[in-house]
Design brief:
Blueprint lengths: L7 H5 L15 H18 L3 E6 L2 E6 H6 L1 E9 L5 E8 L1 E5 L10 E2 H9 L2 E3 L5 E3 L5 E3 L1 E7 L5 E7 L13 E2 L3 E4 L3 E12 L7 E7 L5 E5 L2 E4 L12 E7 L34
Parallel strand pairs: 5-11, 6-12
Antiparallel strand pairs: 1-2, 3-4, 3-10, 7-10, 8-9, 11-18, 13-14, 14-15, 14-18, 15-16, 16-17
Length: 279
């Protein structure tokens, strides 16, 4: 018998990363991270990049960052001396936490998940954080986070893995067709990836994408059809990746490092420092 020929798309998956070779299934979010990382690396090698200031570091941002990149601000406040500081980091996929397990039957919107991710959280006892103003001792801190630049494409990952046992969490998630994030702005839903199965690295993935006709179309392996259900009520326990686009988004590279931070006072408290470029 002749050797089985792999589908062309499967053969090209290794271009994202060698671990993606073969027919084995992979976590869609992890594959997307690897793919965007490889694409960005190739853009940098080709010289298609600009300097992008993130906190005190100047990094090279590619066209991948121009499309998917955003800056995340993390604010810390010491509960002993009340000093404050801000840290900045660049990202391409925003991982949003789910509510406690006992709330899994209560539908939550993407905005709810973002607010949960951004909410104030106390770090005490074994989670205490070093405070330089307190002489380098570990003290209780409060952390808050926010997205402080507005990407052209915002990819949100619903964090469905239970960190305790690795099980897939099946909370109800209802994507909004128009997402409005406090202090960030509005986005329009372009597509959703759904997962069914016991493991995110296995099971079955399908997607729903908005077509040029403004309607949502469902793609499942080789079949596709117009989605009959409202996107906010479709397979709510299987929503995994959300793709939002920025109305009026720009493909102009030059404005990337000049635009100011969005509102919120980043970098003003305590020792808060350098600004960051807006994609």
């Amino acid at each position: 018998m002749g050797q089985r020929v792999l589908p062309e798309l499967v053969r090209y998956r290794a271009a994202a990363d060698r671990q993606c070779e073969g027919e084995a299934q992979h976590d869609a979010a992890e594959f997307l991270r690897l793919l965007l990382g490889r694409m960005s690396a190739q853009e940098l090698l080709a010289g298609r990049s600009v300097s992008w200031k993130v906190q005190s570091d100047v990094v090279q941002a590619s066209h991948v960052d121009r499309l998917f990149g955003f800056v995340e601000e993390t604010r810390w406040e010491c509960k002993v001396c009340h000093s404050r500081r801000s840290q900045y980091g660049a990202g391409r996929i925003l991982a949003l936490p789910l509510p406690p397990v006992d709330e899994r039957s209560r539908p939550c919107a993407a905005t709810d998940l973002y607010c949960r991710w951004a909410a104030a959280e106390e770090f005490a006892l074994e989670r205490a954080v070093v405070c330089e103003e307190c002489g380098g001792w570990k003290t209780t801190h409060v952390r808050q986070r926010r997205v402080c630049t507005r990407p052209n494409i915002l990819v949100c990952q619903v964090a469905r893995t239970d960190c305790a046992n690795g099980d897939v969490l099946r909370h109800l998630v209802s994507p909004e067709e128009e997402l409005s994030l406090p202090g960030v702005g509005s986005f329009e839903l372009a597509g959703v990836v759904y997962h069914s199965g016991e493991r995110l690295a296995g099971g079955h993935y399908i997607c729903v994408s908005k077509g040029p006709d403004g309607l949502f179309w469902r793609f499942d392996d080789l079949t596709f059809r117009r989605s009959a259900l409202d996107i906010g009520r479709l397979l709510m326990r299987q929503v995994y990746l959300l793709f939002y686009t920025r109305p009026g988004g720009t493909a102009v590279f030059e404005g990337m490092v000049e635009a100011p931070l969005l509102s919120g006072g980043a970098g003003r408290a305590g020792r808060g420092g350098a600004g960051v470029g807006h994609l």
